[in-house]
Design goal:
single chain; alpha/beta; six-stranded parallel beta sheet; four-stranded parallel beta sheet; 14 strands
Length: 323
């Protein structure tokens, strides 16, 4: 992929390396006229999940002869993402694809982008409908919730016992939807009890502290589940450090590359995830297709991932999670 400018996110400003954009009608410095430029916004940088999303986006951009500008705040906050989005708007990118730290806080800024002709889509964690044209969920919320509960039931002795959850932020759209579906799925699992939900904000240190606190507050936990790829690693470390391997099982949603060691040690016997590389690939295809005149009310190509149909709410699902 040919990326003409690289950006590093810092709390209040984007530092531009290799040619900075000016806020004028011209494209960003170094960009080829006519090439579609997609601003791909992560919840935060230094997150393995979004690094994989970026790789998939690069693959799609190469196939589509487009440019991807991968950016995000240093910490997963709405304020940091708004700074990033304003910079992309000033550069007059053709499309923005964002995983939202807060669905409502980002909407006014993204509405401004839409008003300026920028095609806005969200992925992973949705933006409020007023701030986007479409949202690509990695899977359906129901399937994700049911999958996590099935994993917990498989790991709890006899399918019964107490479990706690480490989530991301209290305002994370996708995490809250999955929690809702997990609670619904518990109706078919009378032996399981969700005793607590903690929020690690997708930050390793905080997720670790929250996981340790859950283990101490609930010494009879059978399973510690995390629906955050950062949280599941932190939870596994907490269980290992507290010398609870074998007594408390860890599961949820995570990355194979980050969990291999814990799988081998028996801390995380099994877990689920969709391929974040595929997610980055798919959302880039969608963003470029819309920037080139595509219509989200009709099936939209995701390249090797097939087509997606967005419902009346503008939401479509990429694929089923796998264990």
């Amino acid at each position: 992929v040919r990326v003409r400018s690289k950006f590093i996110a810092v709390p209040a400003v984007l530092v531009c390396l290799g040619g900075c954009a000016r806020e004028d009608p011209a494209p960003a410095s170094g960009a080829e006229p006519g090439r579609v430029r997609v601003g791909l916004v992560a919840k935060s940088l230094g997150n393995g999940f979004f690094d994989a999303v970026h790789k998939g986006a690069q693959d799609a951009a190469m196939e589509l002869d487009a440019d991807v500008i991968f950016v995000g705040p240093t910490t997963p906050t709405a304020e940091g993402q708004i700074e990033t989005l304003n910079s992309l708007i000033a550069q007059r990118v053709n499309a923005i694809a964002v995983s939202a730290n807060d669905p409502d806080a980002l909407a006014p800024t993204l509405r401004k982008a839409l008003d300026r002709g920028i095609k806005v889509v969200s992925y992973d964690s949705a933006v409020a409908p007023t701030g986007r044209l479409a949202h690509l969920a990695p899977s359906s919320d129901q399937l994700i919730g049911e999958t996590v509960i099935a994993l917990v039931a498989d790991l709890a002795p006899g399918g019964k016992g107490k479990f706690a959850v480490v989530s991301a932020t209290p305002t994370s759209t996708n995490q809250n939807s999955w929690l809702e579906q997990m609670r619904a799925a518990l109706a078919n699992r009378p032996g399981l009890e969700m005793v607590a939900v903690a929020y690690g904000d997708d930050v390793s240190d905080k997720s670790y502290r929250e996981a340790v606190a859950l283990l101490k507050q609930h010494p009879d936990l059978a399973v510690l589940a995390s629906i955050s790829s950062v949280g599941i690693v932190a939870s596994a470390k907490a269980v290992e450090d507290e010398r609870l391997t074998g007594k408390v099982k860890v599961t949820g949603l995570g990355l194979p590359s980050e969990l291999a060691g814990y799988v081998q040690k028996g801390v995380v016997p099994k877990f689920a995830i969709w391929n974040p590389i595929d997610l980055g690939y798919s959302i880039t295809y969608i963003a470029v297709n819309l920037a080139r005149g595509g219509d989200a009310s009709k099936p939209v190509s995701m390249g090797r991932m097939g087509e997606v149909n967005f419902g009346p709410d503008g939401v479509g699902a990429m694929s089923k999670p796998f264990i």
